[in-house]
Amino acid sequence: MLQPKLIDVKPLPDYKLSLTYENGELKFFNVKPYIIGDWYGMLKDEDYFKTVHIVYNGYGIEWLDGQDIAPHELYELSSL
Asked: Is 24 a residue whose pLDDT tops 90?
């Protein structure tokens, strides 16, 4: 089953994201466990972390150089 479309993503302190979905759900996703290695390690830079944006017609997010997190992970592993 597809998750609802994202309508807003906001970077928060401590490498968390606020995710607002079209069905009105507001969820919070912890990116910190993903920030390892050279590729995702770029997210440690707080200014770069803040470049997160919605892609794929609302079904995903990514950062400027293409780092992303699977849409189903964002939805299923987020807290309310």
From this structure: yes
Order of all β-strands in the sheet with 16-21 = 6-12, 16-21, 26-30
For the whole prediction, is pTM greater than 0.90? yes
Instruction: Provide the token pair at 5.
Output: 């479309």
Q: What are phi and psi of 31, to 5 degrees?
A: -85, -15
Distance CA 45, CA 43 (A): 5
Residues in Cβ contact with 75 at an 8 Å cutoff, skipping those fewer than 6 apart: 3, 4, 19, 21, 27
Which pLDDT does position 2 carry in this prediction? 78
Q: How crowded is the C-beta side of 59, counted as CA atoms within 13 Å?
A: 7
Give CA torsion, residues 46, 55, 70, 33, to 10 deg.
0
Q: Estimate to the nearest angstrom the gap between the alpha carbon of 16 and the chain centroid.
A: 8
